[in-house]
Protein 1
Amino acid sequence: MTLKDIGIDFFKKVILPSGIILLIYVVSKIKFTDDNFENVVITLLICGFPFGVQQRFSVRTSYNSNNVQESVIAPLILITKFFIVGGLIGIPIMAWRLLKAVGYLFVTIFRLLRLNRG
């Protein structure tokens, strides 16, 4: 494995996911300045959404309505469910990617040390 391959893997597996999470977290902390429970949950949902939107399509949400007024509101409810379920699915995926990034730091250090020896 060359130094270039190690650098590309490090960027894809550590820098990119951590950078996305950090950027979204900073932007949402600017928006939600209070540290009450609702803002923390909204921040978690916003941070988890990019990671859960891929798996979100395997979860089905439906809304049946026979009323005309409800049929106008139904798309709004489905869009809201889309974002909430995507964020809820994305929170554990985000945590797992952060754990993998921390673990991959040690793998990268080991590979660099092995590259310098050989």
Note: The chain has three helices and no strands.
Protein 2
Amino acid sequence: MRTTIAVLTLLFVGSSYAGTINLEGHLTYVYPTETAFVITYETESNAISTCNGGKRFSIALSHPNYDALVSTVLAAHFADREVRIYVEDTQSPACAPLIRDVLVRRAGT
């Protein structure tokens, strides 16, 4: 029974990030705009981001977890931590593609 639950949990978690592009590195700039919170990233993805050499991404003001994501991004930026961002790969290439989730690495890991 426990094995079945563990397998189902792994399938659910794995599928929740299927269809995403993830990039990991340090943030170079963070700033708010009228419609989004924008970050520029040290890692590039020219396949989806068309501005700043493929390094600009954004968190939409309408994102259901906007406050939590922005707080996490700001804390990571000021602590100089690496951030992994997840961007839906179904988006058309854009100047600042929308970030779905973020993950911050603890120092030394």
Note: The helical segments are 2-16, 66-78.
